[in-house]
Task: structure prediction
Amino acid sequence: MKIRLIHLFAVLTVSSLAACAGIPPHEYLPAPARDRIATTDVVVPIRQSEIYVYVPPSTAGATGGAAFGIVGALVGAMVDASVNSVRTSKAEAAVKPLRDSLVDYSFDTSLQGDLKASLGQVSFLNVADVHEVKDVTDDALDAALTGSKQGAVLFATADYHLSNDGDVLYVTVAASLFANNDALRALKAPQSKPPRTSLKNALYHNTLVFETKIPGATSDRDHNIAGWSADNGAAMRSALDTGARELAAMLAADIRRSESDGVDPPGAVTATLENQTGTVLGSDDNGSILRFKDGTLKFAAKSVL
Amino acid sequence: MRRAGHAGPVAFALALLAAACTGNRPVELGTAFTPPGNTWLSSAHGRGAAAACPVRLAAVRNSLADPHVLGSIGARPIHAADLDGWVRSGFYAVRGDARLTIVDADPPGTMPVAVSIDVLKAYTLSLTTEKSTNLVVKARFSGRGGAEAEVTYRGVDTAVNWDSGQGETQSSFDRALAHVLDQLDQDIVMRCTTGGED
Result:
C-alpha cells in the first residue's frame, strides 16, 4: 500500500510537470493578430473571495526521510502534512482581523474597473465587455471562451495574498489571450485536446506581479497584519487598489509589445529583487516595473526595492 | 480543537487517493442545515422557556459575486443551487433555543424581532492540507427590541481536507453557519430581553 501511494504521488507529480512542459512563461501577441481581432471579451477569473496568507509547504520531513528509503520518505511526508496543518490553521486565525476590516471592500470590482479603463485604451483590442468568473476550473473557463461572441477572449486570472510573515502583499495577474474567430485561429491552430484554454493555445500570455510591503514590517505576523488592518484596513485597501491599477496598466502596455521590444537597450538599468535581476522598464511615484529574462513582469513598490 | 495528532498525515495519504477519484467534479452544497451536535447554541444550553420571544425571518439576500459558486475544495469547485434555502434552514434551527419562538408572520398583539440576513461571503479555500470555510453575513434587526440595527457576523471552520468530498464540505459549511447562528441567537435574545413587549 505504501509503495502504491508513492507510485501514485510520483505519477501525479510527473503528470503535473508534463502539463507545463514546453510552454514559455511569456509569448508576445503576433503582429498579424492585431488586425484580426474584431472585438475582445475580457474575463477575470478570481477564485478567492478574501485575502489569505500563503503558507509554504513543509518539505523537511520528506527530504530527511528519503535518506531512509521509500518508507522513510513516506513517513517524512506525513510529518510534513502535520506541520502544514498546524501552520495553516495558525495563518487562518491570524488573518481574520484583516478580513474583518475588508468585508465591505471588493478587490474584484477594483481590478475589473482598472482593466476596463486600461485595456479600453488599446485600440486593436476593441474591448466589448469585462466580467468576472468565480469558478476557475478548466470547464468553466472553456465555457467562457466558447460562450463569447467576440473574436478574442482575454483572460486575466488574479490572485492576491500575503507572505507567510504577513509583511509582503503579492497581487498576480496571469494573462492569456485566445482566438475565438477563424481569422485568429489561422495564426495558431488550437489543439484538439481539451482544455481549450490551455496556454498552448494562447496567442499571447504573460504573468504580471505587484509586490509591496507594509511600512514598519517585522518578522511578527500578528504585528504586520495589525498594520494592514488598522483604520478599517486602510493600508491594505490602498495597496490592493494601487496593485490593481498598476497591473492593469502593465497588461495594456505588455499586450502592445512585439518581439523587438524584448531586447534591452544598451545601458539599461537593472534591479534585483528576491534574488532575481530584471531590467527596469519604467518607474512612477509608487515604484518600478521590472522585466525578467523570461519576459515576466513585476511591479516592485518602493517599499521592497 | 478537533485536530488529532494523526489527522494531517492521514489526510495527506487520503488526498492522494481521492485526487484520482474525484477529479474536479463540482461539490454541491445541500439546502438542509445539520447542526453540529446538540449544544451548538452555546447560550441556550440548559435554559427553559418561561416566555418565549417571537422572532421572524424577514428576508434572506445573497450578495455574493456569483451567487452559485462558493470557492473550491482541492480541485473541485463548490456550487450552491439554493444558498438562501440553506441559510433559512439554519435560521429555523434556532428554534432549538427554547427562549425563542420562530414565527412566519407577526402574531396578533405582539411584535416579533424581525431579522433580515444578507450573505456577504461564503466560501471554502484550500490551503496545504487544510480547508477553511468562511461565512460572513450582515443581519438587520427591526421590530421588537428597540431601534433598527445592523451587525456583521463571521463563522469560520478550519479543518483537515480529508478527500475533498461532498460530506466534509457540507459539514464545514454547516459548522461555519452554526458559528454565525450561535452569535446571532445571543443577540436576538439580548434584543428580546432589553426590548420587552411593545
In short: The longest strand of chain A covers residues 168-179. Helices of chain A lie at 2-20, 33-36, 60-65, 69-101, 107-119, 138-146, 182-185, 221-256. Residues 38-51+105-301 of chain A form a domain with the Maf protein fold (CATH 3.90.950).
